[in-house]
Amino acid sequence: MIRIFKTGCLILLLTMMQASAPALGAEEKAWSDYIKPLEVHGFLEVRGGIRTQNDPHAKDISVMETRLQADLFTYTDWAEFKLKGDVWADGVTEKGDGDIREAWVFSRPSDFMDLKIGRQVLTWGTGDLVFLNDLFPKDWQSYFIGRDAEYLKAPSDAAKISFFSALASLDLVYTPQFDPDRFITGEYVSYWDAAAANHAGQDDIIHADRPDNWFEDDELAVRIYRNVLNYELALYGYWGFWKRPGGQNVHGTAIFPELNVYGASARGQMAGGIGNMEVAYYDSAEDSGGSDPLINNSEIRYVVGYTRDLAMDLNASLQYYVEQLLDYGAYEDSLSGAPVRDEFRQVITLQLTQLLMNQTLELSLSGYYSPSDKDTYLRPKISYDLTDSIILETGANIFIGEEDHTFFGQFENNTNVYVAVRYSL
Amino acid sequence: MKRRFLIPLGGLLLATGVAMAQTATPTTDEIIHKANHMALYQGADMKSKVSLEITDKQGRVRERAFSSLRKNDDNPDRDQKYYTFFQAPADVRKMTFMVHKHADLEKDDDRWLYMPSLDLVKRIAAGDKRTSFVGSDFLYEDISGRSPEDDSHELIEMTEKYYVIKNTPKKPDTVEFAYYTAHIDKENFLPMKMEFFKEDGRVYRVIESMQVDAIEAEQNGQPVTYPTVTISVAKNLESGGMTKMTVSDVHYNAGIRDDIFSERYLRRPPRDVMR
């Protein structure tokens, strides 16, 4: 059923693309008449950070890189084109590296439809730094070592087609080959290896078995949304895989089991601020009864949040987030000595942002605290715009936990501080 | 994640309208309502480019540039929608900001910010309107317009060219000034100078219109002219900072559609504003 739906969407998409392409040769025009001037931007950045404690499974440096980003944009009468990529010298991996962040074509073929095809960053949902119905790839590794917040979102190779109407709008995102999160592998950030009951890092990098057959191991994400009196309401669906390893096969290799997600969200003004709520049912399709100890159980995830200004140029946001593990009895029965996950993992997030000196100096703190896991993740940051093109930044990623196996607690040895300077052009 | 937009933007220009031939002296209320209309509501919609040159006490200069769209709702001189597309500086380039401004004092404006590098639509809480607009010496309220209902008004002087109105806030604890005076042009009702006073009678902020251009447009097929402030300067005498705002490429009654002010165009700007 899902496959038929996916195929249908794909055919629709291809038809639309054809319909929206310009009638070539219909008019004699020079190529230069079609392409508008190329916009070129970018930045050069140097960023360095160290662990504040010894980590036997990782280097002392947490991040050490010189990065160049180039951003090219142009458009014709019928489409827009974007190419954005990074190259950097990486002191942690001791390699040169590169990443295309965006490479897409956008077209607005009719009053009721938009198309964006290619490598693109995708985000939806109402959570502030927690993601429920947003199953697009994240890069937790970059986030934890103190790269710019832009890098929390990893790109997808996808086609996004959007339909608009007065009744509701619809987004369909088809990813022909599964794009997982850039999850913690041990390369930059050490982690708790539950099977070995020990910490692991560069000495034991996770190699997961990623489903990678084109048009078979694919993902489909759908959002239907509308505003009612400026309250933003949305329904979501996702058919794909757990975005970071959600199980292992009989050989002990990490795998990405199938996952379907169904959810809803609302966001709008509330008591002088903005309130949001979102829920998502994670249907772990390969372990529907919860009895398979090697595959993640299904979950329901909830978040409620509120953000408002507390004073001039001081904004605060607070959220309460819960992951409820379903079939908990079956989960407990299937355990074989590994640390037990709570039925309800609760996390409180707090964000404070203060702007000073004509908004050129920003002090911010993001915090995650889990009363159930008894662990904490804090991200203090100071950034200063020395000029319009030079930004100085310093911050820290602080992990505190009572136990080795909890989500943030396992990263305790990765607590780090960093500094960066970025020159934009 | 950028900050400057924790601050809202609302209206843009101290724009204006056709002078009305008046023989008798208008009442204070009439002056205020005309000045409010001229400053914020001329035409059915407006499209423009804005640049801000922010100079601090030490003489350091920062620049901001953006394109702006504004559309009035059907109810005259009340609600409006604003769309802003940032071109500079680099860290905010291509961000878009959208406001549904509500004239009703009981109702907060709705504001959204879109950050393209994260593909993130953020809903911005209604903040203090007396905060700096994008780090400049203009405040949000200078841009979106302070509601006439927030102050009591008194005509204190009539010069050859201006009506001078003293505006005293009804809720003094919500603002940083004791009162402000506005010099309103007798011919076209444009506010040409505003001086903000502290309790002790000292002027601490001044906004002046430095250049007014007659912008030609069409309304119902007829040619019309909208006098529009194209250069204005805000000075903060306490901090020593100064911001010059220059407005160019002004088009009135451009036929901006209502759906431009929706998530669709927030995420992917209309062609018009990118040029």
Written account of the structure:
The complex is a heterodimer of chains A (425) and B (275). With 425 residues, chain A is mainly beta. Helix content of chain A is 8%, strand content 50%. Chain A has an 18-stranded antiparallel β-barrel. Chain A starts with a helix and ends with a strand. With 275 residues, chain B is mainly beta. Chain B has four helices and 13 strands. The longest helix of chain B has 13 residues, at 28-40. The two termini of chain B are 25 Å apart. At the A-B interface, strand 5, strand 14, strand 15 and strand 16 of A face strand 6 of B.
Keywords:
A: 425 residues, 18-stranded antiparallel barrel, 4 helices, B: 275 residues, 13-stranded antiparallel sheet, 13 strands, 10% helix, globular, disordered N terminus
Silhouette of chain B: globular
Task: Report the largest inter-chain contact.
Answer: A-B, 50 and 43 residues
Instruction: List SSEs of chain A in N-to-C order.
Output: HHEEEEEHEEEEEEEEEEEEHEEEEE
Number-wise, the strands of chain B total 13
Unreliable parts of chain A? 16-28
* pLDDT averaged over residues of chain A: 91
Give a short overview:
Chain A is mainly beta and 425 residues long. Chain A contains four helices and 22 strands. In chain A, a hairpin with a 2-residue loop joins strand 16 and strand 17.
Q: How is the secondary structure organized here?
A:
The complex is a heterodimer of chains A (425) and B (275).
Chain A (H helix, E strand, L loop, with lengths): L1 H19 L10 H4 L4 E13 L9 E15 L4 E11 L4 E16 L2 E8 L19 H6 L10 E8 L5 E7 L15 E3 L4 E3 L18 E10 L2 E11 L5 E2 L5 E2 L2 E13 L2 E12 L14 E13 L2 E12 L2 H7 L9 E13 L4 E10 L4 E11 L4 E12 L14 E9 L1
Antiparallel strand pairs in A: 1-2, 1-22, 2-3, 3-4, 4-5, 5-6, 6-7, 7-10, 8-9, 10-11, 11-14, 12-13, 14-15, 15-16, 16-17, 17-18, 18-19, 19-20, 20-21, 21-22
Chain B lengths: L27 H13 L4 E11 L5 E12 L7 E9 L7 E6 L8 E6 L4 E5 L15 H5 L6 E8 L3 E8 L9 E7 L5 E7 L5 E17 L2 E15 L4 E12 L10 H5 L3 H4 L1
Antiparallel strand pairs in B: 1-2, 1-13, 2-3, 3-4, 4-5, 5-6, 7-8, 8-9, 9-10, 10-11, 11-12, 12-13
